[in-house]
Amino acid sequence: MQVTLTIRHGEASETIKQFAHDQVEGLARYFERLVEADIVLGHEVHGDRYIAEIRLHTSTDTHFAGAEAGDFRTAVDLTIEKLRRQLVRHKEKLNGRPLTKEERELLFAAQPVVEGGDLPVPREWDRLSSEEAIARLRQSGEEVLVFLDNEDGAVKIARRYEGGEIDVVEAESFEIEER
Hints:
By secondary structure, the protein is of the alpha/beta class. The chain is about 30% helix and about 30% strand. The protein has helices at about 15-25, 70-95, 100-110, 130-140, and strands at about 1-10, 35-45, 50-60, 60-70, 125-130, 145-150, 155-160, 165-170. The longest helix is centred in the middle third of the chain and has 24 residues, at about 70-95. It starts with a strand and ends in a 9-residue tail after the last strand.
């Protein structure tokens, strides 16, 4: 996603600029087809107001939100929260139904960090042994199961091949395929 940042009537520190950029990039968690974002940060001396406005272009629509606060960080947080709600509603419209309570919980769950590593993993991933993962894959009939190994805490993938053979590998051993 292309992000442009404009400062109006004042200055903002690099920390605030990076914070705003990171927050906008994080919105991709709620709607995958984000194309472009325009961030405008402003400071009005009269009344000592900090303003954040964000226009977000998706593949199907444009969303806008703005907020005023006593500092840039709070203004950005308020604006991001407004955009998050807009994107969730937009996704519900596109899906033709509201998200279920479980889908909302999964979508908004905090991303914990694997102990001993820096890979964020979704909360719903199960902690299993490799044997348990293979058994679950056989029972479910699915082709792939991603899990946390309860012995070493590594992210692993169990995969069923066409012949029915199941293999378990660490996620780090995979290379990204270019499409």
